[in-house]
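task queued by scheduler; priority normal; single chain, no ligands, no partner chains; default sampling; output format set to structure tokens
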Amino acid sequence: MTPFGEAIRRLRQRKGVSQKDMAAALHVSPAYLSALEHGKRGLPTFDLLQRIAGYFNIIWDEAEELFLLARFSDPRIVIDTSGLAAEYTTFANRLAGCIRDLDETTLAKLSEVLENADKADGKRS
């Protein structure tokens, strides 16, 4: 499950609705909604994200957080290293090759490095 999928499930449970009911209200299939929750589909469209936020009647800050979670929940990402030094391509490929074997401690350390890099660049992670 992706962070976005977990958030959608929590919102559904908070509202007390089934996937089937939510899917009907959003005009998507229950199978698609299930796949989205379980991380078996790519990023939802911006239109669908807006419909989800409207369906749950969430405030702007919570909607922004949901949109950010969606952005970081694509289970099949592509890292474009074209135009970068060879070390960047090597790193991206090594990460892709070993990501499934990272323990939680290592993952947390790498996440902290990225968060610190974002803060130094003034980006929001």
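post-processing summary
- The chain has seven helices and no strands.
- Residues 86-121 form one domain.
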